[in-house]
Amino acid sequence: MPEVAMSRSIRINGHGSLRGAINVPGDKSISHRVAMIASVAAGTSRVEGFASSADCWSTVECVRRLGVSVEEHPGALLIHGRGLYGYGPASIPPALDAGNSGSTMRMMSGLLAAQRFTSRIDGDDSLRRRPMGRIIEPLTKMGSIISAREGRFAPLEIQGRPLKAIDYASPVASAQVKTCVLLAGLYADGITTFVEPFTSRNHSELMLREFGARLVSSESEGGPRLSIEGGAELRPVDYRVPGDISSAAFFIAAATLLPGSDLVIRRVCLNPSRTAFIDVLNGLGARVTIQNMRTMHGEVAGDLRVESAALRAEPGGTTLSGSIIANIIDEVPVLAVIGTQIEGRFEIRDARELRVKESDRIRTAVDAVRALGGEVEEFDDGFAMEGPQSLRGATIETKGDHRIAMAFSVAGLLAGGSTEILDADCASVSFPEFYSLLSSLTGEGAVER
Ligand code: S3P
Fold first, then answer.
1. Percentage of the chain lying above the pLDDT 90 cut
2. Which residue of 176, 179, 331 sits with most ligand 1 atoms within 8 Å of its CB, as the best mutation to test the pocket?
3. Is 327 in the pocket of ligand 1 (CB under 6 A)?
4. How confident is the model at residue 3 (pLDDT cuts 50, 70, 90)?
5. What is the pTM of this model?
6. Closest Cα to residue 269, out of 238, 248, 239?
């Protein structure tokens, strides 16, 4: 289990180019799912490449507290699944601790709703401010009884019940909500269907099938639809987690923007529901190419080569909006940095969801760009900027948000002078190795602890 670092700031100094080859940690979304799904499979799954992310270890700790043994070996975890009804109640108090992780709280709740006992799940101050009504509603329709602070915030108390299959149309395109309902659907008395307005990341669908769940995808008038049959016992799987493209995104951005860069990022998950960031960058003139593509467990992975390039918006400006937002949702903070360097106007809209992430990411990113001397217009659902702009070193308020800390570390490499990233260690939430990997490419001068 990775150590959690103390909170401290880091200085990033302007830097030349990034050259070499790196690995990024295992995909966070896939790691959460494999810890949860393997924990309710009948037997032992061996998982290689599990994420170092603190969030994913919150999930591991939750399943451990529910009685599932997770052994840590060099390079692999052994998850001794105990079958669909193998969990036992975690002693109360304390509650199960989801830490900073929305994925842990929302997706685990789908499993807890079906157990034959009551669970409490809580998280840190940021997680306690994030909306849980979006999972409470479908789980309540399925028959679970959930009490929450003010009806919609953590901590949650979840009384497990025999669940009814439902047809549910989600108002948000959220893979966390979809996964929560699919996991609950594993236990329901029939076929549960879930319709989302746009396709969100589909790791749960791919993985549930690998573990033997009966799941069908189709299209409906309201959007993409999934149907899962309750009652199927899951089999264990030996699983290899590919690298996290959302972690790679910071290095893709830095290598694109720092002239003279040529960087290879090995074995990155290239699931098409996660690669829109690369398509967007290449559409703006970036040079990101894919080598050695392979497929495992239905997930595509490959090596990325990133060479620096000048970025230019379409004539009249480039706007990202509508269905693409769900596929770049975690990359918007770094797109706020990239946006300052694109020639022409760059705009993101329909991204209101960012206001309820680990921080209000529209506000935090806009404030950070302005702190660096950049000009950006803020909207309720996004932002717009006109580039290229020159940035100057400043102090960045991360609001404890890992993706803001890493995105604005990239900005620090581009800016003249020195940039201080406050509470920089929050990067551990998804990418504990971020600063050491960055300084292994830049030399100590660019990253000062
Ligand atoms: C995730 C889905 C996204 C994303 C989060 C991880 C997942 O959240 O922002 O970092 O693993 O399913 P939403 O599903 O709430 O949009």
1. 95
2. 176
3. no
4. low
5. 0.97
6. 248
